[in-house]
Amino acid sequence: MEASKIRLTVPEGIDPSRVLGAGDGVLRALENLVRAHVVARGDSVAVSGDPDEVELVARFFEHAFREADAGRTLSADDVSRCLAVLRDGEHDASSLRDDVLLSYRGRVIRPKTLGQKRYVDAIRSSTITFGLGPAGTGKTYLAMALAVAALKRHEVGRLILTRPVVEAGENLGFLPGTLEEKIDPYMRPLYDALFDMMDRERTDELMERGVIEIAPLAYMRGRTLSDAFVVLDEAQNTTPEQMKMFLTRLGFNSKFVITGDLSQRDLVGRRGGLADVEKILGRVDDVAFSHLERADVVRHALVGRIVEAYDAYDDVREQRSRDRKESR
User: Fold this and answer.
1) What is the mean pLDDT of residues 75-82?
2) CATH class of 4-97
3) Which end of the chain is more exposed for a tag (fewer CB within 10 A), N or C?
4) Which CATH superfamily is 101-297 part of?
């Protein structure tokens, strides 16, 4: 196949450094991810190589030009995420500018990867959504951002955040304090995320009024959760009975989001509530399953490498176990 060549010009009025990144970081990241040669001189960008890749790079720069014109500069991390969207073809790269929430600190919360965008779309379009994937993929954070946004738009009257209390090394009975004080450390990650999105004083006021509730999963029993956006976190630590109990709490004008990572179960020797739930509910209308992958990890880059290393280690152990069984 013949190589293709094109030359792009940075539109007038746009600083090329906004397009190419600090120290040409965007340009270097781009060249590492495509089968094309990209050279920038002044306001001109020359691209040569595989025709499909050249077209991909052209579409990338169209997006980069629009971002720069809006006063935004892409980062090296943005390059890989943008290319993933463009290669997939399902969404335009601008879909990653799908603002979910503007936090009280003025920070925009939005999906950063194609997987996250699909997850956000699933939550918006389904009454019950399961967000499954490894640590750092934004499962809980995005769900909570959508919940806060729904509360602010008065789409629901309550926000309920819950998670199972699973004792990991310490027995609750031996911890100091009242029941609430003993449970608080288990709920702390939900508080932290909430306080990152809403003013502390306003959040405390809404919690006192019962508009926002953060409580253990056991507290959901016997209730009907109507007019509420409910997020169940760490669902891999539920039992099948708890999962059924929770799902049947659904009331009118409510939305449920269940997040979990099957690789981080703290229930020893017991089957988890997420183990078979997709087999049971996979064909039920208005129930969505969104699977996030290692590519959707948006914490520190090292988190992604740690997840990948553990997955590789587990794969080797499973293969060795299968080999031993076959050799018997």
Assistant:
1) 80
2) alpha beta
3) C
4) P-loop containing nucleotide triphosphate hydrolases (3.40.50.300)
